[in-house]
Amino acid sequence: MWPKLTSLFVGTLFGAGLTVSQMINPAKVLNFLDFTGDWDPTLGVVMIGALGGAIPGFMIAARRQTPFLGGTFQIPSRQDIDAPLIGGATLFGIGWGLAGFCPGPAIAALSSGLWPVFVFVAAMITGMLLFRLVPRR
């Protein structure tokens, strides 16, 4: 029960943080990517803030055998850079630059009720389902 309540709390806090920082507004993201125009550094500040929470979390996880609420840690161990990683990162970046959304902010932006957000999330879910159909090596 506690892991589910904690997940709900952390997800809600994450969505609230995205909303307060206006990262659910695609214009904020697109202005961050527009170095020659109306550049807005706020997304960079949000990313630095995220590192401020993630780095201590990984340091704590490295010293523990199990998570506080049970289960196992899901820390990636691979460090190689291969074609699927580069392709996926490129596709993610292109989609983010075109739409101004990535998965977390898109889900939080559903609360806006705007139809383009629902279209984006539907396309995102469709892409995830199609990925599961692609045979793996």
What do you see in this structure?
By secondary structure, the chain is mainly α. The chain has one domain. The chain is 67% helix and 0% strand. Helix 1 packs across helix 5 (103-109) and helix 5 (103-109) packs across helix 6 (115-133). 9% of the residues are buried. The model has no long low-confidence stretch (mean pLDDT 89).
What are the secondary-structure elements, in order, as H or E? HHHHHH
Number of helices: 6
Secondary-structure content class:
mainly alpha
State the share of residues found in helices, binned by percent.
55-70%
**Relative strand content:** under 5%
In round numbers, the mean pLDDT is 89
Beta strands, count: 0
Low-confidence stretches: none
* Envelope shape: globular
Largest sheet entry: none
Number of domains: 1
Separation of the first and last Cα atoms: 37 Å
Q: How many whole angstroms does the radius of gyration measure?
A: 17 Å
Short description:
This protein is mostly helical and 137 residues long.
What are its keywords?
137 residues; mainly alpha
Tell me the layout of helices and strands:
Elements: H1 2-20, H2 26-33, H3 42-63, H4 83-99, H5 103-109, H6 115-133
